[in-house]
Specification:
By secondary structure, the protein is mainly α. It contains 5 helices and no strands. The protein is globular, with a radius of gyration of 17 Å.
Length: about 130
C-alpha cells in the first residue's frame, strides 16, 4: 500500500510541468485568437452580438484544445484532466479579471455561463483525446 501511494505522488508530480505547459498553450491560443478578433474588429464594425459570440467561441476552442492536449498526455481519466484544465483556465481568467477591474464588474449569469463553457469544452477535449 505504501508503494502505491509513493507511485501516485510521483505520478502527480510528473504531471505538474505538462499541466503548466498545456495551460500556457491554452493562453497562447486565446491570445492569438483575440488578436485575430481585434484585427477583424479594426477592419470592420461587427455587432456586439458577433463579438460576444466570437469571444465565447475563443473560450470553447482554447478549452477544447487544452483538454485534448492534456488528455493525450494523461492517458487515463482523460475527462478529469480535461475538467481540471478547464477549471484552471477559468480560474486564471477570473483572477485576472478581478485584478484588472479591481473586483467583479459583471453579473453572476455571465460568470457561471463562462465557467460552464470552459469546464465542458475542456472536458469534451479530454474525452475525445
Amino acid at each position: 500500500m505504501g508503494r502505491q501511494a509513493g507511485r501516485q505522488t510521483t505520478n502527480n508530480q510528473s504531471m505538474l510541468i505538462p499541466t503548466l505547459v498545456v495551460l500556457v498553450t491554452m493562453y497562447i491560443i486565446t491570445g492569438i485568437l483575440l488578436l485575430l478578433l481585434a484585427f477583424f474588429m479594426y477592419r470592420t464594425e461587427p455587432s456586439e452580438a458577433l463579438v460576444n459570440g466570437a469571444i465565447i467561441a475563443i473560450y470553447i476552442i482554447a478549452g477544447f484544445a487544452g483538454g485534448f492536449l492534456m488528455g493525450k498526455r494523461a492517458g487515463m481519466r482523460k475527462y478529469l484532466w480535461g475538467l481540471l484544465m478547464g477549471a484552471l483556465y477559468y480560474g486564471i481568467l477570473l483572477l485576472v479579471g478581478v485584478i484588472l477591474h479591481q473586483g467583479l464588474d459583471t453579473d453572476a449569469v455571465h460568470l457561471i455561463s463562462t465557467m460552464i463553457l470552459c469546464l465542458l469544452s475542456a472536458t469534451a477535449g479530454g474525452m475525445i483525446s
